[in-house]
Amino acid sequence: MGEFKGKTVFITGGSRGIGKAIGVRLAQEGANIVVAAKTAEEHPKLPGTIYSAAEEMEKAGGKALPVIMDIRSEEMVEAAVAIAVEEFGGIDILVNNASAINLSPTLQLSMKRYDLMHQVNTRGTFMTSQKCIPYLKNADNPHILNLSPPLNMEPRWFGTFPAYSIAKYGMSMCVLGMAEEFKGDGIAVNALWPRTTIATAAVQNLLGGDQIISQSRTPEIMGDAAYYILRRNSKECTGNFFIDDEVMNSEGFTDLSKYAINPDKELMPDFFV
Q1: For site-directed labelling of 234, which of 78, 90, 104, 159 has its Cα 20 to 30 A away?
Q2: Confidence tier at 208 by pLDDT (50, 70, 90)
Q3: pLDDT tens figures, 80-138
Q4: Least-confidence region, from 22-26, 207-211, 236-240, 242-246
C-alpha cells in the first residue's frame, strides 16, 4: 500500500471499464487519479460517470479528481491538464485509454464514424501525450501507457475492420515514436493490450452480449498488469508492447483463473493477438 502515494495519474476515458480498473488499482496504492472523460451523466447502456468512478477510487484509498473532457477538443484537453496540475502539482503518469470502436468494413462505414475513431484513438492519444509531456519531464519516474495492440501488422485484422485497425495501430505507433523521441528525458512510453476479451460495456454492446462476456476476463487483470508496468524504472522499461497475461506471468502469477468471468468457459482471444 502507498507505493504510488503522491503520484498523479491522468487517465483518459477513466469513467468505466479498463480505464476505471487501472485508476482503482493505482488508487489502492495511494495515487492521485485524474478521471478525464466526457461522461458526466449515466448512459442507459454505459453505466458509470466520472463522478461515480472518482468516488470508487477515493474509497480504494486514493485521491480522485473528475474532469469533464472531450478528447477531441484541444481546448478541453489543455484545460483538463491545467486543472490536474493546479490540483496536484504535476503529472507523473498518463494512461491513454480513451477509445472509439466501430467494426464496419470499408463500404459500410460512414466517414463520420471513421473520423470519430481517428479523432479519439490516434489524434486523442497524440494530443493528450503532447499536453502532458512537459509535466512528465519533471516527474521522478514518468510513464505513458497506451491501451493499444502490439504492432504485428497482420492482414486479417486490416481486412476485417480496416478503419478501426488503423486507428488502434495509430495509438501503437505513438508508442514506437514517442518511446524513441523521449528516451533521453527518461519518459517510458509503453502499450498494454489484453490477451482475451475483457468484460466491459463495449464488449457487451458491440461484440455479442452475454456469450462473449462469459468467455472474458474482468478489467482487473488490466489494472493489475498496468500497476506492475508503471512501477518499473522508466529509464529501463520503454518501447514495449505488453500483453496482460505475460506481464502477470513475469511477476510470478501463473494462475489467472480469478480473472475469468466463468472459469469453466474457454477464453475468447482479443483482436490483434
Answers
A1: 78
A2: low
A3: 999 999 999 999 999 999 999 999 999 999 999 999 999 999 999 999 999 999 999 99
A4: 207-211
Pairing assessment for the beta strands 32-37 and 241-243 based on DSSP bridges: unpaired
Phi/psi for 113 (5° steps) reads: -70, -40
Note whether 196 and 270 are within 8 A (CB). Answer: yes
Q: At what angle do helices 220-230 and 17-27 cross, to 10 degrees?
A: 50
Q: How far apart are alpha carbons 44 and 198 in whole angstroms?
A: 20
Counts of helices then strands in the chain (DSSP H, E): 11, 7
Q: Which residues are catalytic?
A: 164
Neighbouring C-beta atoms of residue 249, cutoff 10 Å: 12
The answer, yes or no, to whether residue 159 has pLDDT greater than 70, is: yes
DSSP track, 151-205: ----HHHHHHSHHHHHHHHHHHHHHHHHHHHTGGGT-EEEEEE-SB-B--HHHHH
* C-alpha span between 247 and 225 (Å, rounded): 6
d(CA 118, CA 102): 11
Tell me which residue of 66, 198, 91 sits closest to 142, measured CA to CA. Answer: 91
Cα 138 to chain center, whole Å? 22
Q: What does the pLDDT look like over 52-61, one tens digit per residue?
A: 999 999 999 9
Cα angle, residue 70 at apex, residues 58 and 163 outer, rounded to 5°: 115
Instruction: Say whether pLDDT at 167 is over 90.
Output: yes
With 0-12 CB in 10 A as exposed, 13-18 as middle and 19+ as buried, what is 40? exposed
Give the burial string for 85-97 (b: 16+ CB within 10 Å, else e): beebebbbbbbbb
What is the β-pairing status of strands 143-146 and 8-12? unpaired
Contacts of 184 (CB under 8 A, 6+ apart): none
